[in-house]
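Friendly challenge for the regulars: who can give me the structure tokens for this chain first? No prize, just bragging rights.
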Amino acid sequence: MAENVTLARPYAEAAFQLAKGGNALAAWSEVLDRLSAVAARPEMEECFGNPRLTRDQLAQLCLDVASPKAQAEISVDQKNFVRVLAENDRLFVLPEISELFNELKHGQEGVRDAEITSAFALDDATLKALVADLERRFESKVQVTVKIDAELIGGVRIAVGDEVIDASVRGKLA
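First reply, four minutes later:
Bragging rights claimed.
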């Protein structure tokens, strides 16, 4: 996994520079997320290892699956980016490229990612209040991902970057 991140980093940075220069960060993020989902599928992993498929065929396959309705959704720069990845046998790192790209995008926009792990599902009001508190504490917009982990017994565990706030019953008992 760490090796994949190392391979993906220069491509993510190149995609970020292209997107930033074209004022299209959101569009690139959306396309990379779709391509990432395509590349992570077991069927595609089999295709990446198939010696009968050419690099051009692999690139086109990724593009077709990521945009089945209309190829117009994917820009020329994005198509070329996928072709460069295919030429360099790097399509398999699309999930890492997407993740690194989104980190760069969030850094540019002043958004921080937070992972909230709760023992039980959070209602909308509680989640909104928690997000507002996090935004006040970290003085930036916060994009949250919520996970449920019954082993926490109660409360929440919040990770923002390398900072962890453990307000769970399990954490207090430990």
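Residues 95 and 150 are 28 Å apart (CA to CA). The first helix runs from residue 2 to 21. Your move, everyone else.
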